[in-house]
Amino acid sequence: MEPSAIVVSVVACFGVLIVLIVVGAVVAARRERERQEALRAWAKRHGWQVVDRPQVDWGRRMPGRNRRGVSLALFGTLGGRPVAIGDYSYTTTSTSTDANGTSHTTTTTHHHVAVVVRLRMPRPSVAVHRRGGGSKLWRSLFGDKATAIGYEAFDSAYRVNAPDPSLVRAVLGGPLVAEHVAGRLPDWSVEGNELLTFVQGRIGAPDGIPAQFGPLLRVADLIEAHART
């Protein structure tokens, strides 16, 4: 092939790539606009409120700890409780070096959905998370932290974080622990009267929003039932 033909082929391929990138960005923007429009329409029908860039600090308790990471949130009421659900994101940057010694930087945006239920009264700050492999290894080597509740089936599967370990039992009662051991509840954290959990992704189909609160509403009921005992 003639050098000129090679240059033309390279330029053509580059042009096609640019077109595909532009088209992909346009399609993604349109889908995001349609998603947000559907969320706003659903919220209006059900008497919920949609807030862009809400002044909340949920990100402080989520991966990435991006305090300003909530871009959109819906606020409403379920089961007599104020609730909220929001789109949250944070970015990470990684650098790699190829065989020629050239550095390449990659930026990745991570998306999560924050699910929040408001308790009727403030509770001590406590967080419950399912243990990963590293946490299980740490426990096997160094034993339980002061926040452990002393029930092996729970302590081996979950780690509890709290500024004041002596107040953990004021939040974690027997029925709540049993539900966790049975695998029916999500990870969660409570600060003041805000109970929060999160999952990866973005807020999906609007009609599926109420169901996302079910497990966390159960946590709220069990926390408050324990507080009354």
What does this structure look like?
The termini are far apart. This protein has two domains: 1-47; 48-227, no CATH class. The protein contains six helices and six strands. The mean pLDDT is 90. Strands 1, 2, 3, 4, 5 and 6 form a six-stranded antiparallel sheet that branches. It has helices at residues 3-46, 133-142, 152-155, 174-181, 209-212, 214-227, and strands spanning 49-52, 70-78, 81-97, 103-130, 158-161, 188-200. With 229 residues, the chain is of the alpha+beta class. Helices cover 37% and strands 33% of the residues.
Please describe the structure with a list of short key phrases separated by commas or semicolons.
alpha+beta; 2 domains
Number of helices: 6
Number of domains: 2
Identify the quaternary structure here: single chain
* Structural class by SSE content: alpha+beta
Shape: flat
Mean pLDDT score = 90
Order of helices and strands: HEEEEHHEHEHH
Largest sheet: 6 strands, antiparallel
The portion of residues forming beta strands comes to: 25-35%
Total number of β-strand segments? 6
Helix content class: 25-40%
Q: Report how far the terminal alpha carbons are from each other.
A: 84 Å
